[in-house]
TrEMBL record:
Protein's UniProt keywords contain Hydrolase: yes
Necessary cofactors: Fe(2+)
Catalysed reactions listed for this entry: N-terminal N-formyl-L-methionyl-[peptide] + H2O = N-terminal L-methionyl-[peptide] + formate
Protein EC: 3.5.1.88
Keywords assigned: Hydrolase, Iron, Metal-binding, Protein biosynthesis
Name of the protein in its database record: Peptide deformylase
Organism phylogeny: Bacteria, Pseudomonadati, Bacteroidota, Flavobacteriia, Flavobacteriales
Length: 196
């Protein structure tokens, strides 16, 4: 089932997600719905807060990035078919020299900005089997993980840009909060909740 994606301004996007247990209600269905919602919106990642749930869960599929002709074939191969569910994730370490990449977010449509992040992350997480893993990821995969991980910490990519750039996008952010944006995917807006 395709879920509505929560737009910028909704308080759920600012909540730190809570850890879940294997008996979390309808977990398999929730994960399946999140993948379906992400694919419907042409995203490469989606975190539970973006569909209104303040829990530590996000899904990633970097396959669309593998179609970028500017990438080396080894990186394209790595990105193609990288699909993973992260439950109760905790970034243990971020390493390397920060690099810039133009990021966007399904909850903040029509806004893209260059964001600096470290190239390598070490992360502890569970997949759907709830077996704890510790893995190291780098490059674009690490970046997508960091972006989605920020969501479960109540952080948005717009928090990581300069105050000048924040001022320049202020009007767009206000429009999203008020639901004055059109996307080809379902969205839910903060202003609509308040009955405005």
């Amino acid at each position: 089932m395709i879920l509505p994606i929560v737009g910028y301004g909704d308080p759920v996007l600012r909540k730190v997600g809570v850890a879940i247990t294997p008996d979390y209600p309808n977990l398999k269905e929730t994960i399946a719905n999140m993948y379906e919602t992400m694919y419907n919106a042409y995203g490469v990642g989606l975190a539970a807060p973006q569909v209104g749930m303040a829990i530590r869960l996000f899904v990633i599929d970097t396959t669309p990035f593998s179609e970028d002709d500017d990438l080396e074939s080894a990186e394209q191969k790595e990105l193609k078919g990288f699909k993973k569910t992260f439950i109760n994730a905790k970034i243990v370490k971020e390493e390397g020299e920060e690099w810039s990449f133009n990021e966007g977010c399904l909850s903040i449509p029509d806004v893209r900005e260059d964001v600096y992040r470290k190239p390598t992350v070490t992360i502890e997480y569970c997949e759907e089997d709830f077996v704890m893993k510790t893995e190291v990821f780098d490059g674009l995969i690490a970046r997508v993980i960091q972006h989605e991980y920020d969501h479960i910490e109540g952080v948005l990519f717009t928090d990581k840009i300069s105050s000048l750039k924040k001022r320049l996008i202020q009007k767009k952010l206000k429009n999203i909060t008020e639901g004055k944006t059109f996307q080809e995917y379902r969205m839910k807006f903060a202003a609509a909740k308040k009955g405005r």
